[in-house]
Amino acid sequence: MQDSFIKLTDFDKSAIYLTDYSGFSEWERHPAGDELVHVIEGETTLVLLNDGIESKNKLLSGEFLVVPQGVWHRFESPKGLKVLTITPPPTEHSIIKPG
């Protein structure tokens, strides 16, 4: 599968993105608001990091999860994933587990 990431449109103070990829993402968080994650195709484990504790949330096609404002999170999607997100800017990234 070829990785792709596209901004579809602006929405309120956020943007709507469509992403198609496989693998494990880096950590990210959104300090200005909640992010909606909706799995269009495939599956993922969306890992949230709260007070140093990881919680793993398995999401299948058609399911969604709201990532609370400021919560570090990452995707584990070894089999591939097509996901639609409503993401408030800015996005902060980290390649190592924040702590």
From TrEMBL:
<feature type="domain" description="Cupin type-2">
    <location>
        <begin position="25"/>
        <end position="86"/>
    </location>
</feature>
<dbReference type="Pfam" id="PF07883">
    <property type="entry name" value="Cupin_2"/>
</dbReference>
<dbReference type="InterPro" id="IPR013096">
    <property type="entry name" value="Cupin_2"/>
</dbReference>
<dbReference type="InterPro" id="IPR011051">
    <property type="entry name" value="RmlC_Cupin_sf"/>
</dbReference>
<protein>
    <submittedName>
        <fullName>Cupin domain-containing protein</fullName>
    </submittedName>
</protein>
<dbReference type="InterPro" id="IPR014710">
    <property type="entry name" value="RmlC-like_jellyroll"/>
</dbReference>
